[in-house]
Amino acid sequence: MMSNVADVVIIGGGVNGCAAAYYLAKSGIKSVIVLEATNSIGHGGSSRNGGGVRQSGRDVRELPYAMYGIQNLWPTLSEELGVDTEYTQKGNLRMGKTPEHMKKLEALANSAKSVGLDVRMVDQKEVKEICPYLSDDVIGASWCPTDGHANPLTTTLGYYKRALELGVKFYTEAPVKSLQKIKGKVRKVILNDGTVFEGETIILVAGYESRAIARTVGVDVPMTRLIDECLVTEMQPHMIDVMFGCASADFYGHQTKHGSFVFGSDSGWETVDEMVDPSTNIADPSRMITNSMTLSASCRAIQGYIPALRDAKIVRSWCGWLDEAFDGVPFLSPVEEAPGLILACGFTGHGFGTAPAVGLMLSQMVRGEKTVVDISALRYDRFKPCR
After folding, report:
1. Which long-range contacts (C-beta less than 8 Å, at least 24 apart) are formed by 333-337?
2. The FAD dependent oxidoreductase domain covers which part of the protein (predicted)?
């Protein structure tokens, strides 16, 4: 019989939750429970993203751990997890078509260079040398040669399998209703059906649902909910090794090792109302539907940058929730007024590529160690008024 008491209870069975569980178990903390609200691991954003493993284009507050993961974790992750994560490190082009685009890209590149990232601006000629299939309308780009991409499905699966092998207990169909303090410390996790789990430390890494759960112990996390959509094309001849995106944020994507292209995008017109259970105002997995307006807008944008894909057929599309922090970067820290609780949410649609580093740092927080890099700028209370 499985015990409902553990050293650590992790709320959220996505790639970050599974990575945290693995690194905790690897470090010797064997008593770990992971609670996933749906009936499958990685059902949320972890299986609904385009697989970017990038540093360029990020807020400088994210760069230290994004860079750490790419330098120290991603290169050997397939071997460590025993799955092919399809990690490919061939660089990232963030393209521009107008002078305004180039100014935006240059500002991002300069801020990244200020913390040591190898990223530079390239002109139209060099863009075409890196990727000859791009439109002549692309006048330049930022280029980060150490960026890349990977497969979110196999990466999440790998962390899940290795955590299982190390003794982590996973519960699916375990939606969390509330947290409860015992003698001033967050200790109990109560499911919708009344089942209670207890842990010395609770890690809340449940996407946007983290906000409602944290509120049950008086902690409000300033973030909102957005939709991102992805599509996959039929297999194409080998064209592109790099990850690519654009200054206008119309889309991002890459070509997989088996030939299909994977793209993520939004049109700005998505509505969330139809995907929310009106009785609870909570995202309902059964209502996850793609938006024809987004797909058509995405395809027009993609054709405008990669004309060679004009006749490519779409074989699959899907959508997923973004837990968008109000300032665009995640909340990663223990919670002072709720001892025992660690927040890891608000990843704003770019949490997959940093998952190895985040999982490692969460395990370090649990053990009371210094994280591999300083992430004090990502504390949950950064919006509090200055005294």
Report:
1. 333/365, 333/375, 333/376, 333/378, 333/379, 333/380, 333/381, 334/365, 335/186, 335/214, 335/219, 335/380, 336/381, 337/218, 337/219
2. 7-365
What angle separates helix 152-165 from helix 15-26, to the nearest 10 degrees? 30
On whether the CB atoms of residues 365 and 200 are closer than 8 A, the answer is: no
DSSP track, 329-362 = S-EEEE-TTSTTEEEEE-BTT--STTHHHHHHHH
Please give the distance of CA 95 from its chain centroid, rounded to a whole number: 22
CA 296 to the chain's CA centroid: 24
Using DSSP, state whether 44 is helix, strand or coil. Answer: coil
Strands 341-345 and 196-204: parallel
Neighbouring C-beta atoms of residue 369, cutoff 10 Å: 11
Confidence label for 386 from pLDDT (cuts 50, 70 and 90) = low
* 3-state DSSP assignment of residue 115: coil
Q: Which pTM was predicted?
A: 0.92
Token pair, residue 177, equals 């209703």
Provide the residue ranges of all domains of the chain, joining segments of one domain with +. 5-50+153-223+327-378
CA atoms within 13 A on the CB side of 96: 20
User: Distance of CA 301 to CAs 57, 142, 148, 213, 264, Å?
Assistant: 19, 19, 21, 37, 11
pLDDT of residue 294: 75
Q: What is the Cα–Cα distance from 320 to 167, expressed in whole angstroms? A: 30
Helix axes 355-366, 63-72, angle to 10 degrees: 100
Spatial separation of the C-alpha atoms in residues 265 and 319, rounded to whole Å: 10
Residue with tokens 């759960």: 213
Instruction: Give strand pairing partners of 186.
Output: 181
Long-range contacts, stretch 307-310, CB < 8 angstroms, 24+ apart: 307/133, 307/135, 308/133, 308/239, 309/233, 309/236, 309/261
DSSP-derived 3-state class of residue 290: coil
In whole angstroms, give the CA distance from residue 242 to residue 88: 8
Structural class in CATH, domain 5-50+153-223+327-378: alpha beta
Phi-psi category of residue 256: left, alpha or beta, with phi > 0 → left and psi -120 to 50 → alpha: beta
114-152 confidence digits (pLDDT tens) = 999 999 999 999 999 999 999 999 999 999 999 999 999
Per-residue pLDDT tens for 317-349?
887 778 899 999 999 999 999 999 999 999 998
pLDDT value, residue 305 = 94
